[in-house]
Amino acid sequence: MSLRNRLRDLILAVGSITLLSLAVFSLQNGVSLSMVTSRSMEPTIEAGDIAISKQIRKSEIRRGDVLILPLPQNREFKYMHRVFELNNDGEKTILRTKGDSNPNPDKWQIEILSAEVPKVISVVGSGFVFDSPVGRRSIFLGLIGGSILLIARKGIGGSNPLVSAIVGDSDF
């Protein structure tokens, strides 16, 4: 085996272990990663940054928190804005949000119906794209499946024809 192939295998192994470790950390600590696609929170959070969020109880929401919420017009899509106004009377939690680069608060008010919401706890500036629209468990299972495919592709004593058909025979 050439030095180039050994180096490639080492990089793949370290990368797989790192991603698996991140997935386990995410599951154990209840954090999620999301890529920021909008410029509405600049200069605090820029498009392309990775937001790390953690679920908090709706009673813990404070003015100034950056939350990830469903868009009122299409609840399948999420947006990330700062809490501008907060009305928490113990029974209902209603808030209005605002992007840091927007001159005015959002036109809508949102009633928080779930017991918990994702709060942004950290942001990492990044050039790579990573988003978890389907949740932490799917990422974890995807990383395990990808690692199994990598291991199965190398196989013991040669390549696996089924895996070769899925991922191809080319070198990485």
Layout of strands and helices, then pairs:
Elements: H1 3-29, E1 31-35, E2 50-57, E3 66-70, E4 78-88, E5 93-98, E6 110-111, E7 116-124, H2 136-154, H3 161-167
* Major sheet characteristics: 4 strands, antiparallel
**Cα radius of gyration in angstroms:** 21 Å
Structural class: alpha+beta
Reported by name, the CATH topology of the largest domain is Umud Fragment, subunit A
In total, the number of strands is 7
Order of neighbouring strands in the sheet with most strands: 3-4-5-6
Any idea of the CATH class of the largest domain?
A: Mainly Beta
As a percent range, the share of helical residues equals 25-40%
CATH architecture of the largest domain: Ribbon
Secondary structure tally, helices = 3
How much is the average pLDDT? Answer: 76
Description of the molecule:
The protein is an alpha+beta fold. The protein has two domains: 1-31 and 134-172, no CATH class; 36-131, Umud Fragment, subunit A, CATH 2.10.109.10. The chain has helices at 3-29, 136-154, 161-167, and strands at residues 31-35, 50-57, 66-70, 78-88, 93-98, 110-111, 116-124. The strands form two sheets. Strands 3-4-5-6 form a four-stranded antiparallel beta sheet, with no helix packed on it. β3 and β4 form a beta hairpin. α1 (3-29) packs antiparallel against α2 (136-154). The protein is elongated and about 65 Å long. Mean pLDDT is 76; it is low at 127-134 and 155-172.
